[in-house]
Amino acid sequence: MLITLKLDIVSDISCPWCIIGYKALQQALSTLEPDITADISWQPFELNPAMPAEGQDIVEHLTDKYGINTAQIEQNRAMIRERGLALGYTFSNSDGGRIYNTFDAHRLLYWAKQFGKQSQLKLAFFDLYFKQSGNPSDHQQLLTVVASVGLDIQAASRVLDSAQYEQEVRERQSFYHSQGISSVPAVIINDKHLISGGQPADVFEKALKEIASQH
User: Fold this and answer.
1) Beta bridge mates, 207
2) Cα distance from N-terminal residue to C-terminal residue, the chain
3) How does residue 1 score in pLDDT terms, banded at 50, 70 and 90?
4) What is the pLDDT of residues 31-71, one digit of tens each?
5) Cα→Cα distances 142→103, 107, 157, 208, Å
6) Cα 61 to Cα 31, 95, 98, 106, 195, distances in angstroms
7) Residue 109: HSE in the Cβ half-sphere, 13 Å Cα cutoff
8) Is the pLDDT of residue 19 over 80?
9) What is the pTM of this model?
10) CA dihedral in degrees (123, 201, 114, 143; nearest 10)?
């Protein structure tokens, strides 16, 4: 019997563990097919909601936010690079760069859901930031990504030039904060089971199997 699990993935596009977690989840789902599939929705979470448009140097940001030194930052980066490569994902910006505001990207992701292109757009935004060292707060760069996944660039431009979906995105963020989500990625299965962090594929596989067996 085919079982489809509802998965809400709370994440930010500038979070390396979010793409690592998703790649591991994909690996787990490919192992479980065709018996278990997933209906995935991406939910907004801003790691740095107060970040200005020009962004901040990433080393400076991590030092300020977490109180860690450059040696610790490089150690973390090496671990992220290694985990990414093991899952077939290369972090091209792992030697530096800037951190940016991602709110408008989340508005576009909310908009893309209605066209069945949310996952494609999310993955393309990850690539913009982690592979192309792009700026996800720059409207032109966002529109280029929108076009690359076959979405209407004029409609996306109208979203960006207005306040459309601002309230909806803020409400979704507030909801997940109220549910105790304070770090990402957070994968919520069938509205009641939570898997936190960029877990390995076998952790996802075991959890999904167990939850599916309850159907």
Assistant:
1) none
2) 10
3) confident
4) 999 999 999 999 999 999 999 888 999 999 999 988 999 89
5) 11, 11, 9, 33
6) 38, 14, 8, 21, 27
7) 29
8) yes
9) 0.95
10) -10
The count of residues in the chain is 215
E-strand stretches of 14-173:
36-44, 56-57, 98-99
Q: Could you give the CA distance from residue 42 to residue 30 in angstroms, rounded to a whole number?
A: 19
Neighbours of 141 (CB within 10 A): 18
197 phi-psi bin (left φ>0, alpha ψ -120 to 50, beta other): left
Overall domain count for the chain:
1
Structural domain of 75: 3-212
d(CA 166, CA 103): 8
d(CA 58, CA 129): 12
pLDDT at 76: 92
Rg of the chain over Cα atoms, rounded to whole angstroms, equals: 17
| H or E element at residue 30 | helix 16-32
**Which token pair is 31?**
């192992």
> Whose CA is closest to 19, among 121, 89, 112?
89
Q: CA angle 106-57-166, nearest 5°?
A: 20
Q: For residues 67 and 108, what is the distance between their CA atoms, to the nearest angstrom?
A: 32
Q: Which two tokens stand for residue 48?
A: 């740095």
CATH of the domain at 128: 3.40.30.10
